[in-house]
UniProtKB/TrEMBL annotation, chain A:
PANTHER family: FES CLUSTER ASSEMBLY PROTEIN SUF (PTHR30508), UPF0051 PROTEIN ABCI8, CHLOROPLASTIC-RELATED (PTHR30508:SF1). It holds the Pfam family SUFBD_core. Belongs to the iron-sulfur cluster assembly SufBD family. This is Fe-S cluster assembly protein SufD.
UniProtKB/TrEMBL annotation, chain B:
The keyword Nucleotide-binding applies. This is Fe-S cluster assembly ATPase SufC. One of its GO terms (molecular function) is ATP hydrolysis activity. It comes from the Bacteria. Residues 4-252 form the ABC transporter domain. The gene is sufC. Keywords: ATP-binding, Nucleotide-binding. It holds the Pfam family ABC_tran. Belongs to the ABC transporter superfamily. Ycf16 family. The keyword Phosphoprotein does not apply. InterPro entries: AAA+_ATPase, ABC_transporter-like_ATP-bd, ABC_transporter-like_CS, FeS-cluster_ATPase_SufC, P-loop_NTPase. SMART domains: AAA.
């Protein structure tokens, strides 16, 4: 059984501030009663996402930075592990951590805040425009890996953030990855991620942006994991004139099961929410892409548009691309498109007419199908890497001709 | 010397809307050798594009009778990629756009597809060839890093088809209305590309409505197609004669009972 004593014990061992210990405890206290989040037509309750017995954990930084940190510090940018940040900048962190994704939303969020053991805090001060992307590499720190990225872009700042998550050196049996983005008025955040966890783990993720007046957030997430995966990619358009473009791709192989909600909620008037999801299914895998566009009452003059497309590369695979539009306001523009189908025949014929064999042509066409996310990754090496992973997955899972 | 022979070719195409099959080619005979340029002319709806797509192996077209021989080997059962590796190339009327794959990468993949796996083209050789051919076609180097045909204008697509042909160096190039949608300047450039390939290792089959193209690429043989068959062969003068008298004139002269698609 999980106990409060154990949790308190480790929190003290890690010399945590009392407010952080309190957050853990109040999360823990809700853990039992809260339900798992619902995912339509997707069952995962038997997945080992929550430990049944007490376990040891420690606070550890889980990222390495790819560029000169000093350059960032000069501009007043804060980039440090979340526990150091909680001590050095208590007010900033306390007021923002858990403000976008609440600890008491469901069982998995409560578990995350109770046991979080890794993470990063990034703060971009007002009016700071970063042209070069901040690129980090994340990897599991311990067997139960619970990581939290908290990014605050202050008024009129601009940042591109790229993370790569891989577990080549150390595996985790379960991973809970959260990202909270706070885009203050007029700010601009481009967040991209290349997720490549191995099949040894089970992944829960929750990535959410709170987007204030005239702020702009773009997600580009490549789910290239080999593991069972469940999660939400979420944009809360709270401010007037705010903008979100939520792009996600997933390639599923073997017996992998992946369920993803990609949600954009228009709350502010004249806000724009775009969803573009692309999935490729191989072998016996299962992939559900729910695109959820919600326009709440009062968000007049808003726009919601979504595309959900999956390619079926095997008769044994099961794929769903479900667009859901929930509209509670009259003066809006909303549209969606969904498709489940095979690879484009015209493109295939064209590539093959130049001598390129079927299998290779198919891989090239699929790369184009996933191009929207690929193009958004702001680093050539990471893009190359993503293409390599894609090639490997496709070669392994492709039906040979 | 390579040869391409089309013997008594009958082809049907499936009509998706009507769920029926339509006969388009009704016994085409043609014989090409490397070193020769042939032109096929004919009115709309006569099967010219069907012929080129069928030679290349587009799976939409079904051969119901006859044969296509490349160097005396039947290719009708071969998939399109194998035909390409054996030396056929089709410059398409409407090239597909393939996002996510750059022109340069595509060209290398196509060239390497014809080479042994352990002997891909060297980067230097590839780049030298590419530079030379880009120059020849007045093309900007930047286009090699653009995605394959994506956002290209009609003229850029046509040039890109010829660039591919120059790089892949097939034995036979089939040019399907390579002149359509081109202004005079672009037509000149495209023709320069085709003429640069002329020689004893290359043969071409050009499909066109208009004689104009044949002023720039002078053919050795001209064939006229009507209603799914070749109805007349001749030299370059035949094209000039057609330009003056029209297809209806030739039809009447030959005493054929065919209704032309665009005839009132």
């Amino acid at each position: 059984m999980l106990t409060k004593e154990n949790l308190l014990n480790f929190s003290h061992k890690n010399n945590e501030s009392s407010w952080l210990t309190d957050l853990r405890i109040k999360s823990f206290e809700r853990l039992e009663e809260l339900d798992y989040p619902k995912m339509q037509r997707f069952s995962y309750q038997d997945w080992p996402l929550i430990k049944k017995e007490d376990f040891s954990w420690s606070n550890q930084a889980d990222f390495s930075l790819k560029e000169e940190q000093k350059l960032l510090e000069k501009k007043g940018i804060i980039l440090t592990d979340i526990f150091t940040a909680s001590k050095k900048y208590p007010e900033l962190v306390q007021s923002t951590l858990g403000s976008v994704i609440k600890h008491n939303e469901d069982k998995l969020t409560a578990y995350h805040y109770a046991y979080l053991n890794s993470g990063l805090f990034l703060y971009i001060p007002k009016d700071i425009i970063l042209t070069e992307p901040i690129t980090i590499s994340l990897s599991p720190t311990q067997d139960t890996y619970i990581s939290h990225l908290l990014i605050v872009a202050d008024n009129n700042s601009k940042v591109k953030f790229l993370e790569e998550i891989q577990d080549k050196e150390k595996k985790a049996s379960s991973a809970s990855l959260m990202v909270e983005l706070i885009a203050r008025p007029g700010s601009h955040i481009e967040f991209s991620s290349l997720d490549e966890l191995s099949q040894d783990t089970t992944l829960y993720f929750n990535r959410r942006a709170k987007i204030e007046k005239d702020a702009h957030v773009e997600w580009a997430i490549a789910f290239m994991n080999d593991c069972n995966t469940l999660g939400d990619l979420d944009s809360e358009l709270v401010g007037e004139g705010s903008f979100a473009d939520s792009k996600a791709i997933a390639v599923t192989t073997a017996n992998q099961k992946v369920g993803i909600n990609n949600r954009v909620t228009n709350r502010g008037p004249h806000s724009t929410g775009l969803i573009n999801q692309r999935g490729v299914l191989l072998e016996n895998s299962r992939l559900i892409f729910n695109g959820i566009g919600q326009i709440v009452h009062g968000a007049h003059g808003s726009k919601a548009d979504q595309q959900n497309r999956v390619l079926m590369m095997s008769d044994e695979a099961h794929g769903d691309a479900n667009p859901l539009l929930l509209i509670d306001e009259n003066d809006v523009i909303a549209a969606h498109a969904a498709s489940v189908g095979p690879v484009d025949k015209v493109q295939m014929n064209y590539l093959m007419s130049r001598g390129i064999p079927y299998d290779q042509a198919q891989r090239l066409v699929i790369r184009g199908f996933l191009g929207a996310v690929l193009d958004a990754i702001p680093n050539k090496d990471v893009r190359r890497k993503m293409i390599d992973i894609l090639e490997r997955k496709l070669i392994d899972g492709q039906i040979k001709h | 010397m390579a040869t391409l022979e089309i013997k008594d070719l009958h082809v049907e195409v499936e009509d998706k809307d009507k769920k029926s099959k339509k006969k388009i080619l009704k016994g085409v005979n043609l014989s090409l050798k490397t070193g020769e340029i042939h032109a096929i002319m004919g009115p709309n709806g006569t099967g010219k594009s069907t012929l080129s797509e069928t030679i290349m192996g587009n799976p939409r077209y079904h051969v119901t009778q006859g044969d296509i021989l490349l160097n005396n080997e039947s290719i009708v059962e071969m998939p399109v990629d194998e035909r390409a590796r054996k030396g056929l190339f089709l410059a398409m009327q409407y090239p597909a756009e393939v996002p996510g794959v750059t022109n340069a990468e595509f060209l290398r993949a196509a060239i390497n597809a014809c080479r042994p796996k352990d002997d891909p083209i060297s980067v230097m050789t590839f780049l030298n060839e590419l530079d030379k051919n880009l120059d020849l076609l007045d093309m900007n180097e930047a286009m090699t890093e653009r995605y394959l045909n994506e956002g290209f204008s009609g003229g850029e697509k046509k040039r890109n088809e010829i660039l591919q042909m120059l790089m892949i160096k097939p034995s036979f190039g089939i040019l399907d209305e390579i002149d359509s949608g081109l202004d005079i300047d672009a037509l000149r450039v495209v023709s320069r590309g085709v003429n640069a390939m002329r020689g004893d290792k290359f043969g071409a089959l050009m499909i066109t409505h208009y004689q104009r193209l044949l002023d720039y690429i002078v053919p050795d043989v001209v064939h006229v197609m009507m209603d799914g068959r070749v109805v007349k062969d001749g030299g370059p003068d035949l094209a000039k004669k057609l330009e003056q008298e029209g297809y209806a004139g030739l039809r009447d002269e030959l005493g054929l009972d065919i209704k032309l698609v665009d005839e009132n």
